[in-house]
Amino acid sequence: MRIVQKYGGSSVATLELIRGVAKRAIATKNEGHEVVVVLSAMKGETDRLLQLAMEAHPSPEPRELDSVLATGEQVSIGLFAISCQALGEKVKSFLGFQAGVKTDDQHGRARITDLDPARIRTELAKGRIVAVAGFQGINRHGDLTTLGRGGSDATAVALAIGLKADLCEIYTDVEGIYTTDPHICEKARKMERICYEEMLELASLGAKVMEIRSVELGMNYGVQIHVRHAHSQATGTLILKEDSEMEKTPVRGVTLSVNEARVTLLNVPDQPGVASRILSLVSKAGVVVDMIIQNRSFSDVPEGAKLTDFSFTVPLTDYPKTMELMEAAREEIGASRVVGDDTIAKVSIVGVGMRNHAGVAALMFQALAKENINLSMISTSEIKISCVIEKKYGELAVRALHEAFELDKLEG
Amino acid sequence: MRIVQKYGGSSVATLELIRGVAKRAIATKNEGHEVVVVLSAMKGETDRLLQLAMEAHPSPEPRELDSVLATGEQVSIGLFAISCQALGEKVKSFLGFQAGVKTDDQHGRARITDLDPARIRTELAKGRIVAVAGFQGINRHGDLTTLGRGGSDATAVALAIGLKADLCEIYTDVEGIYTTDPHICEKARKMERICYEEMLELASLGAKVMEIRSVELGMNYGVQIHVRHAHSQATGTLILKEDSEMEKTPVRGVTLSVNEARVTLLNVPDQPGVASRILSLVSKAGVVVDMIIQNRSFSDVPEGAKLTDFSFTVPLTDYPKTMELMEAAREEIGASRVVGDDTIAKVSIVGVGMRNHAGVAALMFQALAKENINLSMISTSEIKISCVIEKKYGELAVRALHEAFELDKLEG
Fold first, then answer.
1. Which residues pair with residue A350 across a beta bridge?
2. Which ipTM did the prediction report?
3. 8 A C-beta contact, residue A76 and residue A15
4. Which of A75, A85, A135 is the best substitution to test chain B (most B C-beta atoms within 10 A)?
5. Interface list for chain B against chain A, based on CB atoms closer than 8 Å
6. Which segments within A11-153 are labelled E, that is strand?
7. Is position A411 within any domain?
8. B147 and B255 share a domain?
9. Number of Cβ atoms within 10 Å of the Cβ of B211
10. Would strands B193-195 and B237-240 be described as parallel, antiparallel, or unpaired?
11. Which positions in chain B touch A98 (Cβ < 8 Å)?
């Protein structure tokens, strides 16, 4: 098999750990596989560099910052190759540009646009392990770029695609993907398999194991991804195409996000164009809106006036900015008041089986009602249902839903 | 003027110092000059990286080591550019490969073979300061290389040549080139001008200010080099073509090297081929021999036998290795004994005027004799005379020669 292995920063935090990773890669090769290893920077290194840059200027020129940050991975792959050398294995390391990782021009969050892994293929053909710097690429000007959060995952999946690898292993500090956060619910179970769509929903809902773009990329090209623990031999979770087995269960995961806040404009005119005016203001400020709900208002309203309440959620970090923005635009929009709430949580259930199972929403609402948890917003997609609740009930809600959908009994 | 400025590691050791360097470069630009800045790694960083690599393997794969070490300069130019940004100046930084610094394949001590500074020219034409990572280049395979000790000097001089710069400023932590080491002789004087040939002899004789290859490069292309202090406005020393003014003085510099040792093979057969057999053994071990002296032996020898003593000096660090090697080969070479001495020093006088002045050697030997300093080896070139003496007399010899040749009264 041709295998791409990606190890995150915590797996290469020290020379000792790098040596462990080297042993693991060599063992995989000795099982008869072709191995490409993608590494992140040693844990803490990217933050150290970022801090240095920000001491020089609070918002450093993105092109220069990328060049500084890219050194983190450059060091780890070199040390990895040298550690392999110490174990008697000849390894060649490649920087993003040497591995042919071409990106667009968006410094700090560049996207891979093209891949030319000719040098990697040559080395693999010589029977060598190849190490590649994650997180980085080169744009059409010949400038270094970085891929943003989770960028090394993207490098690994892109390489798996470009090299037609049979498997992309994402080594991390957890055992795999769980039905829910084991810290919240001790009955959480590791899933053996999960499909791309489910993983995407879980990732965007707050599961931090893998970065969304990489899952998307894997989905588009059908790359099998194995998420597993860097320092354990246990099997982790395989991310792959949806199959009939998965569809038998309506719900396969529960997530909780507490990093959101709600903004409500009271009594805005119930007219076409109001919603788009509000949302374009918010998006111009660079704030990404998640849930949106508009509902007829019956309070504080003169009889007969066509008014409505308009609510949306934003990331908690953008909450103060968004509130200011709305206060400033309140009069122009015609709202009577702006009300915010940063004590909310979003609890969600996910499963591809939802498509074929009726009554899933009803069961969810029942389970929450049983615990006296009030729902203030609801949104649904084909394979997920999310509810906004009071933050203090977040963990309770997760446990209640995990129980109600019997996820502790989930097979596979 | 188009000026290349090079700042060493101690000049960019902290963010504070980098900001100082940024101010200096901007001030130069504001005087109406085009400025290209070449930086070394922050002081201590290269050592830190080297240590990490050597912890992973005592003799790390050179290609991998180069890639790790090259990050040092990558960080400093990025931080420099960001510091300029904080001072309101738009600066673009380029890594070795982006600046078109092509080298041969000798990792760890690569030589620049070609330069293609197209991107630098474009940025200069836009009125921008350009920062370039010193010490690094790229070879024909697309691999990163480093240029070895003093590599950033080589980058600066090469860029000065490639960009047809009017001046190459080497900023360092000393005021310039002195007639001798001011720590040894308080009457040492800063020279205003020195010619390439003299600088080459001084550099190879132990003056640590500039690296030999860069002086050579500068000489071959006639680049004016100004060695000066990074944190002082005072003029330093200009390195340039020899002129008639310089030739008026026979001696212009005195140097001391204490990092050498002498190896003597006693009573080797006085036959053709013996010297070359000894020296090829030494050179195969990677040891560079400096002085060589062969003289007829009159002691311990049966009357009539054609025997000779053969002495040579090697770097102190290679002394134990060389002694072992000679002991092992003693019988085959036919020497009666191998004698070593690691308590020697080499004192030298340098000056292009020597060519036209008679009696310089005599004056040197006189001055040393006056202090009862015994000479054990002597070697000469067109513009220098070196003597091996006992190490304990090193500083005294320097002061005596400085006095004898009246270097404290040197003009210009």
1. A253, A384
2. 0.82
3. no
4. A75
5. 15, 18-19, 49, 52-53, 55-57, 60-61, 63-65, 67-68, 70-71, 74-75, 77-79, 81-83, 85-86, 92-93, 95, 98, 119, 142-144
6. 34-39, 91-94, 101-103, 112-115, 129-133, 136-138, 144-146
7. no
8. no
9. 20
10. parallel
11. 142-143
What per-residue confidence (pLDDT) applies to B151? 92
Please give, rounded to a whole number of angstroms, the shortest distance from the CA of B191 to a CA of chain A.
37
CATH code for the domain of A157: 3.40.1160.10
* Edge-to-edge order in the sheet of strand B260-269: B292-296, B307-315, B260-269, B337-341
CA of A266 to nearest chain B CA: how many angstroms apart?
43
CA distances from A257 to A180, A201, A326, A393 (A): 12, 12, 24, 12
- Best of A37, A69, A82, A92 to disrupt the B interface (most B CBs within 10 Å) is A82
Residues 6+ positions from B346 with CB-CB distance below 8 Å:
B205, B206, B256, B257, B258, B260, B290, B291, B313, B386, B387, B388, B389
Q: For residues A289 and A283, what is the distance between their CA atoms, to the nearest angstrom? A: 8
A306 vs A269: CA distance, rounded Å: 6
Taking the C-alpha atoms of residue B190 and residue B188, their distance in angstroms, rounded to an integer, is 7
**Last residue in a domain, options B173, B205, B234:** B173
User: Half-sphere exposure (CA, 13 Å, Cβ side) for B245?
Assistant: 10
Q: How many CB pairs under 8 A join A and B?
A: 102
Count how many domains chain A has.
2
In a domain, A410, yes or no: no
What tens digit of pLDDT does each residue of A325-377 get? 999 999 999 999 999 999 999 999 999 999 888 889 999 999 999 999 999 89
B83 is in which domain, residue-wise? Answer: 2-173
Nearest CA-CA distance, residue B87 and chain A, Å:
9
Same domain, A203 and A121: yes
pLDDT digits (tens, 9 = 90+) for B310-366: 999 999 999 999 999 999 999 999 999 999 999 999 999 999 999 888 889 999 999
Identify the domain boundary among A225, A241, A257.
A241
Domain CATH code at residue A274: 3.30.2130.10
Residues A237 and A247 in one domain: no
CB contact under 8 Å between B56 and A79, yes or no, is yes
Q: Do A82 and B19 make contact, defined as CB atoms within 8 angstroms?
A: no
Contact between B56 and A83 using a beta-carbon 8 Å cutoff:
yes
Terminal alpha carbon distance of chain B: 24
> Does a structural domain hold residue B281?
yes
Q: Which of B71, B79, B85 sits opposite A74 (nearest CB)?
A: B71
Taking only the tens place, the pLDDT of each residue in B29-48 is 999 999 999 999 999 999 99
Residue written as token pair 């892994």: A117
Does residue B317 fall inside a structural domain? yes
| Structure tokens belonging to residue B195 | 């010619």
pLDDT average, residue stretch A249-274: 90
What residues of A are in the B interface, CB distance below 8 Å?
15, 18-19, 49, 52-53, 55-57, 60-61, 63-65, 67-68, 70-71, 74-75, 77-79, 81-83, 85-86, 92-93, 95, 98, 119, 142-144
